[in-house]
Amino acid sequence: MVRESLGLTSAKELIGKSVCTDQGTTTELNLASYFRANGLTYQPVSFANATEKAYEAGRCDATTTDVSGLYAARLSLSNPDDHVILPEVLSKEPLGPAVRHGDNQWADIVRWTFNAMLDAEELGVTNDWAVRIIKHVDNSGESFERNVGEGSPLKIKRGQNAQWTKGDLQYGIPTR
To answer: Rounded CA gap, 44 and 25, in Å?
Structure first.
């Protein structure tokens, strides 16, 4: 994330700029790997906590974390619209449904609920299939859009979280 006033459209334009990151995290390592792989220089500024506050205070030109975290952090800034999320994703650390280890029944419910939502989206079903799930939480596309997508305050683009039928990564287990 950078200040819109910098006029940057790509992380590759951060040459020599300072980038705030969380100390001791995979984000810190992914940042270093990205710049090294692209032959770019930058100034890492690592913090044990309060990274977004340091960024907002001007201690660095950019800040990074997981994509969903960036969108959430942007909303916490005093003027969110003055900041933009650059398009590059620096890591492959997907987020998804998870349950406590050993709770197999709950894991099955979560897994099959999520798969039903994915299949409902793929088939264009919005209200009358897997009725209880869709009635309460919608299909996966509608749920994403409402909770974290462009129709939510976070405004995250669907990106690789879109259906495989659109060339992306999400697909449910066949249920026909």
So the answer is: 13
Are 60 and 20 contacting, i.e. CB atoms less than 8 angstroms apart? Answer: yes
Which residue in 117, 78, 91 sits closest to 33, CA to CA?
91
Taking each helix axis from N to C terminus, what angle separates 140-147 and 104-122, rounded to the nearest 10 degrees?
Answer: 100
CA atoms within 13 A on the CB side of 169: 8
pLDDT tens digit sequence for 103-152 = 999 999 888 888 888 888 888 877 765 677 778 878 888 888 998 999 99
Q: What domains are there in the chain, each with its CATH number?
A: 2-84 (3.40.190.10), 104-166 (no CATH)
Low-confidence ranges of the chain (pLDDT < 70): 128-130, 175-176
> pTM for the whole thing?
0.67
Q: Above pLDDT 70, what percent of the chain?
A: 97
DSSP per-residue string spanning 64-112: ---HHHHHHHHHHSSSGGGEE--S-------------TT-HHHHHHHHH
